[in-house]
Amino acid sequence: MKGLNNPTITDAIITGAIWAAICIIFDVFGWVIIKHPWSLSFKEFYIDYQPWITLIYIAIFIGPIVGFIFVR
Questions:
Q1: In-domain check, residue 1
Q2: Does 53 fall in a domain?
Q3: Per the CB 3.0–4.6 Å rule, which of 23, 56, 58, 61 could disulfide with 16?
């Protein structure tokens, strides 16, 4: 947020949404679609791994907003 001339809360929300979307997409590919010894099924990753996966995505979304509050 420091790199922006005049950051707004809207910029922080958009940044958080973009980062959360990127992480969700990479997680689907890295943990569900691409098979490896630690891969999980969709149900295992997004249903059985609750509430942790949701809390992680919320933290990723809220991170830029918290950064905006500290920089302001």
A1: no
A2: yes
A3: 61
Report if residue 20 sits inside a domain.
yes
- Count the Cβ atoms, other than its own, within 10 Å of residue 20: 19
**Domains contained in the chain, number:** 1
Long-range CB pairs of 26-31, under 8 A, 24+ apart, other chains included: 27/53
Q: Which domain holds residue 17?
A: 9-71
6-62 tens-digit pLDDT: 889 999 999 999 999 999 999 999 999 999 999 999 999 999 999 999 999 999 999
Distance between first and last Cα of the chain: 9
Instruction: Tell me whether residue 2 is in a domain.
Output: no
To which residue do tokens 């005049």 refer?
Answer: 6
